[in-house]
Amino acid sequence: MAIESNEKNLQVLSQHGQLESLRQILGPSPAVSHLIADIARVAKSNFSVVILGETGSGKEEVAGAVHQASAYSGGPFVPVDCGAIPETLLEAELFGHERGAFTSADSRQLGKFEVARGGTLLLDEVSNLPLGSQAKLLRALQEKTIFRIGGTRPISVDVRVLVASNQNLLTLAKAGAFRHDLYFRLSEFTIRVPPLRERREDILYLAQRFLDITNAELRKNVRGLAESAIALLLPYDWPGNVRELRSCIRRAVLLADDVITEQHLDIAGTCGSTAAEVSPPPTPADGLPLKEIVRRNTRQVEREVIVRVLRRTGGNKAAAARLLQIDYKTMHSKVREYGIGSGREEYE
């Protein structure tokens, strides 16, 4: 029964044109199929949805697919990056303001809730909302009304709200950084977008897709990826996920004339600062399953990448974490996990 129900969900999403488009964006792996099934399952409901995933993993694309397969698809899809708006302007951005509400408010301004009326509002990186704004968001969700800053009249808004975060909101709530009541109001259903390292079957598919797109953009005819390039791409952990892979391939297409080789991936600032500095890992002993081969090679490559980047930063873990686009805690835990020396001698 569960399999039959899952197939029906996929058929429904396919009817909205989202199944194939999302596969094209994220890849054909089983992990993406499970993700699509979750989207199909929740899209037609009125549940609030939390979309969790690392930076660059495709959270906004997933939110767009939920919107397109929902009853709100006839309305606008309005994404808001809560981490990119100064705290002093955030409430005006969300709820709008009346003329004269503050010094620079020389006219009435509609907020994103009103702009998204009849559609979907995506609050990306919602963990960046200050606690005061979280309280107002909770009230807006519960009462389906907002007040513009400086306004006294409640405004009814029929909006489906989706939120996305690269942090675990429940963990933040337990730490006092996110309101428990808002978390429970938002998290009626959670969709987790797997990082690229958990769906390596998608790497070459996406690399070829970005190659084709860039070929068309640059009017080039780069034919594909050499084995030496594939040997670098597959074991790399892609801390920047799909976004990082896209940038890496675009730069490689710009440099290549015939096929992309490892030399074209050796570009400072993209995967060349990490993966391309590492020699292709040796193949483990015969008889091991592919999953174990990938696991061992991945750990070997990851350790060498971290050591090389730490050499570049003189052992500065914070600077290395920024270069690898991971947080400091992750860097610190990986240094301990791989037994990387605490002294500078390993970095020199």
Task: Give a brief outline of the structure.
The protein has 16 helices and seven strands. It is of the alpha/beta class and 348 residues long. Strands 2-3-6-1-7 form a five-stranded parallel sheet.
Structure description:
By secondary structure, this protein is of the alpha/beta class. The protein has two domains: 2-194, P-loop containing nucleotide triphosphate hydrolases (Rossmann fold, 3-Layer(aba) Sandwich); 198-347, Helicase, Ruva Protein, domain 3, CATH 1.10.8.60. It is 49% helix and 8% strand. The strands form two sheets. A five-stranded parallel beta sheet has the order 2-3-6-1-7. A hairpin with an 8-residue loop joins strand 4 (145-146) and strand 5 (155-156).
CATH topology label of the largest domain: Rossmann fold
Largest sheet: 5 strands, parallel
Rounded average pLDDT: 82
Give the total of domains.
2
Reported CATH architecture of the largest domain: 3-Layer(aba) Sandwich
Strand adjacency order, main sheet: 2-3-6-1-7
Topology:
Layout: H1 2-15, H2 18-26, H3 30-43, E1 49-52, H4 59-68, E2 77-81, H5 87-95, H6 112-115, E3 120-124, H7 131-143, E4 145-146, E5 155-156, E6 160-165, H8 169-174, H9 180-186, E7 189-192, H10 201-218, H11 227-233, H12 241-255, H13 262-265, H14 290-312, H15 317-324, H16 328-337
Helix pairs in contact: 1-3, 2-4, 3-4, 10-12, 14-15, 15-16
